[in-house]
Amino acid sequence: MNKKIILLIGGPSSGKTTLINHLEKEGHVCYPEISREVILQAREKGIDYLFLENPMLFSEMLLEGRIKQYEKAITEEKPVFIDRGIPDVIAYMDFIGDSYPQNFIEACEKYKYDKIFLLPPWEEIYTSDETRYETYEEASKIHNFLVDTYKKYGYDLHEVPKTTVENRYQFILEHLKD
């Protein structure tokens, strides 16, 4: 593997966490999605839906956390797989139609990932829970915003097929060779 920082992106409930967990089980260095952590921290402070109640604060916290993940990842000796990246913050803000400060754009331009794997919407595995409140239709729209945002920042996206986690894992390994 000659790639250093590899992202898994996609809308809610597209299989990213399952795939990250499998990669980790196979011995790869993986960083989890941090939005659940941010959501749970907010709930401890009495804010049930931080993204809905204060999307800018939520997004700023995510941006800060994802920059920290990136900075940690570049110090790793092995390639790092990360569940979601910095441009996700802009994609979600665009999805809700909210504006964001220039430093969001600057972060997307400064911190570059080596390879992006896109997990498409997959209705058969879609579930919602206490931190994933989007409908499947909203998840599909978020997917489109993610694609547009990552392409805007010059990334080639490698769409991971809808198949077993083992086959998805093998697909990623094969595409890391090129």
Average of per-residue pLDDT values? 89
Taking Cα atoms only, what radius of gyration do you get, to the nearest Å? 15 Å
Give the strand order, joined by hyphens, for the main sheet. 2-3-1-4-5
Q: In the CATH hierarchy, what is the superfamily?
A: P-loop containing nucleotide triphosphate hydrolases
> Into which percent range does the helicity of residues fall?
40-55%
Structural class comes to: alpha/beta
Inertia-based shape? globular
Percent strand: 5-15%
CATH architecture: 3-Layer(aba) Sandwich
Would you identify the regions where 5 or more consecutive residues have pLDDT less than 50? Answer: none
Measure the end-to-end span: 9 Å
Give me the number of helical elements.
8
- Total separate domains: 1
Order of helices and strands: EHEHHHEHHEHEH
- Main beta sheet, described? 5 strands, parallel
List how many beta strands DSSP finds. Answer: 5
CATH topology: Rossmann fold
Identify the CATH class: Alpha Beta
